[in-house]
Design goal:
alpha/beta; Rossmann fold; 3-stranded antiparallel β-sheet
């Protein structure tokens, strides 16, 4: 049975999301021409929360959508596309959001999926947790928590509405 260690509780997750939101605003010198796109499923919820916090701080709505990367994965390709992007990314500053960055393969697939929809001005990457172990040369621009892990450990992000609580835990096999 795996043991688990709590890394971020609900309050710590909220603080990380607030910090990422402020960093995005500062880096982009506001929210002009900015949109957020979250990788399904938990990345889309993190993106929605960041967009809400940015809108609260800046006093204007930021477009936010969800991206299904299934067709662009190199490990288990499929044909579905449940993406919900009710706006064009053409010429925009797109902040791609995921819950955890690990090998970089999901981010690669997400960038390919984005590029199939248009040509953004720039793509930035925001992640709640960066756990290291890249297989591809990907780096997040905005990180909620750097979390060095071993390859044998798993990072589980639980987030409402899919899970009963907002938290991040490390699972270790015993």
């Amino acid at each position: 049975m795996p043991s688990q260690t709590l890394i971020l509780d609900e309050k710590a997750m909220a603080r990380a999301i607030a910090r990422i939101s402020h960093e995005i605003i500062e880096y982009n010198k506001g929210v002009e021409n900015l949109c957020l796109v979250g990788i399904y499923s938990r990345g889309a919820e993190v993106a929605r929360r960041i967009a809400g916090k940015i809108s609260e701080v800046e006093g204007r709505l930021v477009e936010c959508g969800g991206l299904d990367i299934t067709r662009f994965r190199d490990d288990r390709p499929g044909n579905s596309d449940r993406s919900d992007l009710p706006f064009s990314i053409e010429g925009k500053k797109v902040v791609l959001v995921d819950d955890v960055i690990f090998t970089g393969r999901s981010v690669r697939a997400a960038m390919e999926a984005l590029m199939s929809r248009g040509r953004p001005q720039r793509i930035e990457l925001a992640v709640l947790v960066d756990r290291g172990h890249r297989e591809l040369p990907m780096r997040a621009d905005f990180v909620g928590k750097n979390l060095p892990t071993s390859r044998g450990e798993k990072v589980r992000v639980s987030i409402r509405p899919w899970d009963p609580a907002d938290q991040v835990v490390i699972l270790k096999e015993e």
